[in-house]
Amino acid sequence: MERRLEPELMLDPEQARAYAEADFAEPHERFVDLFAERFPDMVGGAVLDLGCGPGDVSLRLAARYPACVVHGIDGAPAMLAAGETLCRAHPAGPRVQLRLGQLPEVRAPGAPYETIVSNSLLHHLHDPRVLWGVILRDGAPGARVFVMDLCRPETAERVSALVARHAANEPEVLRRDFEDSLYAAFTPEEVRSQLDEAGLEAFQVEQVSDRHLVAWGRL
Ligand SMILES: C[S@@+](CC[C@H](N)C(=O)[O-])C[C@H]1O[C@@H](n2cnc3c(N)ncnc32)[C@H](O)[C@@H]1O
Description:
The chain is an alpha/beta fold.
């Protein structure tokens, strides 16, 4: 099945509100678990979270690693506004800074970073080289890099089945969002090619659930 692009930035306030209010506890806590398994040496320091949205993953990382600060970057004002509210209410919020800016133009304040993460940004990018280029530009030598995203299924029937399985009880705006994202996502083979083209041949790509892949390694 061909990739079908969706808008890069999540600018619609209704979409951003529904996204920020959704319960992503299971995949986002899994994100932190998978990161921790792959980088057992992680203790603290500054972490860059690319396409942070409302910052749920940023906050979960900050909570798991009390010696770290997280800098999140996102180009959607409505997502960041929701994130500011979440950060104010969260015990780890004072160690999370969210900043408005579109990649690749925006520069993160703490570059070069020892750790760069990103969840569900890759499938939004019309040109995936933006993500790998920013990682190479803003990561320190030896930096930990951990990217998680959706995988594009092979058929439209499989897309419908995943939406039914994982988003049946979500509001319509979120179900549509999830479906669009599955069509916009890359296959593990495509991500492998992107990494090889970027010079990140040593990175690994793994499918970790019925809908998620991770790409990770050290710069
Ligand atoms: C599906 S959301 C994921 C948010 C967050 N990482 C999470 O896991 O909840 C994707 C986010 O990437 C942002 N985004 C997409 N393209 C971007 C770009 N070129 N620069 C900055 N942010 C971008 C969107 O605005 C959106 O908030």
